[in-house]
């Protein structure tokens, strides 16, 4: 029987030069896969790189060989290097309320927009009522109302001057206006009027009939003047509201100038607020009887942001 030869000391190990490594310890290294499974790692890399729906990865093999410990860290690293998906939210569609607008925002901006809109509504509910309580606003409203009265009074004064020149007085009564013949600055009594010659009576009656037509024309114009006055007050309200609302919305728009869908939405919000000023101006308590509200409180839900997907705390895909 042949005796085995002993091994030389240099055959008991394979020398390795540490200078070839670019790390201090193996803690600095990331797992590179399973030894001897290069094809499996290539397949994993290829599968993760597919950016289409309907593709899946199945990692198969005997238990205990490290499938999970290799696959999970690889997927986490790949996910961390990819951009974080966007946020998605629903915004109110003021033109078609039953069809909200789906808006995509960069990750984390959806939560910011929701908070900004909540703060905006609070600011508007405080700012708008105060804007309409200033002395300047009330002074301008009084000027518009006085202009209406002056317009009507000037028209009546012109008619009154004409009636006097024709020997007739324009008299204001609790029920409206009346005409009466005048002699020497005094309204004729019924008996005195009856003693007038028929020719004079006919002249007076013809003049009164003509003057009544002119009076009716003035009275018909009164609703038009009132409407013009209301339009001027509405224009004033819009001006005051725009001053109060505009700068608040502009501050938010500056933060979202890179997202056109949001700036367009904020423009629509501004228009809607101005069209529904009364909802912000009426801050009084809603009266109720037996616990039943007589009027519905204004709802500001249309200004809320419905945040569907929030990736504010996500990193990667």
Structure characterization notes:
The protein is mostly helical. The chain has 8 helices and 8 strands; from the N terminus they run ααββααβββααααβββ. It has a 3-stranded antiparallel beta sheet, with helices on one face. A 3-stranded antiparallel beta sheet has the order 3-4-5. Strand 3 (168-173) and strand 4 form a beta hairpin. It is rod-shaped and about 175 Å long. The two termini are 68 Å apart.
Give me a quick take on this structure:
The chain has 317 residues and is mostly helical. It has helices spanning 38-48, 67-81, 109-131, 135-165, 190-194, 198-255, 260-275, 277-281, and strands at 87-91, 101-105, 168-173, 176-183, 186-187, 288-289, 292-293, 306-309.
Helix content: 40-55%
Mean pLDDT across residues: 82
Strand order of the largest sheet: 2-1-8
The amount of beta strand, in percent, is 5-15%
Task: Considering the chains and any ligands shown, give keywords for the structure.
317 residues; three-stranded antiparallel sheet; single chain; mainly alpha; 8 strands
